[in-house]
Amino acid sequence: MSYRTMIFPLAVTFCFCQRADAQTIETQKKPPSVVFKDAAGTVVTSIPLDTKRRVPLVEMKVSVSSNMAYVLTGSGMSKPKSRERSLSAVNLATQRVDRVISIGEGNEVELQMSPDGRRLFSQTLRNVDGGKDGSLAFEHIQKPDGAGSVITVVDTGSNQTIGSYDLLNNPGEALPKAKFVETFFSVTADGGRILAKVNGFDHQHGRLLPTTVPTWVRLLVFSTESPNSVFVFDPGAPIVSYRFSQDGQFLFVAAEDKVRRSEVVDIVNLEKGTTLNRVLDNPPTRRERLGAFLEGAAPSGMELEHGIWVFTRAGLRFISEAGELGQEIALPVEDNVTARLSLDGAFFFVTIPGKDQHSGVLHVVDLKKGASSNHPLADVPTKLIRLGATKGLWIVGSREMRSVSEAGELGERPILLNKPRKTEEGDTESADVFLDGYPGETITMGEDHAAILIAKKNGGSLHRVALIDLKKLQVDSIVTTMSKGEQSKIFAGRLLETLAIAAVAGAAGGAIGAYGGIPPPNLFNIPLPQGLANEFLAARPDGRSLYVLDTDIHKVSVIDIQSATVLGRIPVNDLVTTIQVAQDGKHLLCAGAGFLQAVDLQTSKLTN
Predict the structure, then answer these.
(1) Which of 131, 111, 133 is nearest to 122 (CA)?
(2) pLDDT (tens digit per residue) in 116-137
(3) Is it the case that residue 401 has pLDDT exceeding 60?
(4) How many CB atoms lie within 10 A of CB 34?
(5) What are phi and psi of 29, to 5 degrees?
(6) In the chain, fewer beta carbons within 10 Å around the N or the C end?
(7) How far is Cα of residue 477 from the mean position of the Cα atoms in its chain?
């Protein structure tokens, strides 16, 4: 369960389905728009966009099941000076607009797509406070007078509106008094329920920002199957988190009671409209665990109970939908831990860095038996990730990575990432390829392979990628994506630019001094030379090609996995910061602030 806590110029969830014929979808600055192009590069459809700080503001979602793209049309396009908003539903097979869908008045809109792609949800906000430049200092802050927050539900199969829900004006359930309100919403996995949160503030901190703690909180649950039904819940305490049960029939709400220094978990029966609560007198002292829920298997003796695990100060406790509390299971309380749940939800894994530079611990919690065990590690764990087609679990450190079974058993032999210490014993003759750096971003490639970006200790890029064989447990090869000469040229250019700025600043500082003024330190905000930017990885589903985005030269290196060589580079827009290969394996999705482009990988000309 999550909700957006900040505004970003680009808000896109996008992928191509196999029958999509669109070759390229991208944004344009002049005029600000999203354009759909055919294979020849001809614009078939152009949809106007709003801008923020002269950057196109893209709000777009794609339904794979319906083969439709939904783009928020620029305000006032249908009716000049009108706040009426609309969505353009573009058929990806024809690249043309099938229907324009009205979603009501508002100066801010947020879109969400159900995971199955069958329903699109739009939240239209009216009377949103913002800065002079039109930006929002705090999301969705509204003055109650004249404010509106309406969620519209669209069936993507027919592009018809099937429901509309007003978060601020529910019959018989007037909002408590407030000077400002903010609203958020999320949906269940099947799109059958909408969970909305409304915060009210009585005071204002500064010109725009409210106090961080709301005066009151209200939760609203709507059923998309019954548009007229709504469940209203006022917890009476600051809400920390909330989550639906696995069957979607119950809602678990965690609230903080600062007076009693406890945590209250409210269990809401959405079918019956009843609520019960349980008080935990030992809540976590760290904010990241306060109110955190875990959807693990029920403990022994409570197998027939649906419920959820909640973190306590020292561990975990199971709470059933009927309010039954299980015994507490102890957990490590150290900092810098990483954690994962087994695929069947029966085990909870926690990696803990050791007290020295070359050790750590894997803590395995058996949620069903309520028992735990520790396994020593020969390297400091930095990541606990899933790799490979079977989503196997791996512990990644600076010197090695080791597999973990779904029952918490460590693999007998690690993959050596860097040379072992001289004092270590064992056969290392088979390992002759090493990272000679620190593991960065790691992704899956095909069935039994992975790729690791090699970084410096401080996180700067070395522009090298390691290709890993997860089955043979070895580093196959290291691929260089940028030569030393190219790296030196970029860094030298930055240094010269910095020296030039410093010279100008020094001359200006002397002039100020001649008139008796003393410039304060860093008056001219002179930038220091920065390390080369980190890349971003993407791979084809079949694992045959790897794509590495370089944000220094704004190109994507194409690596052939079998030969471990760079075939060439695809130039991309300098706004691109992330890349992803579409599900069909034929398109590379490139996105950044105010920019979206889908590159046809079969026809792109590679340039060295």
Answers:
(1) 111
(2) 889 999 999 887 655 444 444 3
(3) yes
(4) 25
(5) -85, -35
(6) C
(7) 30
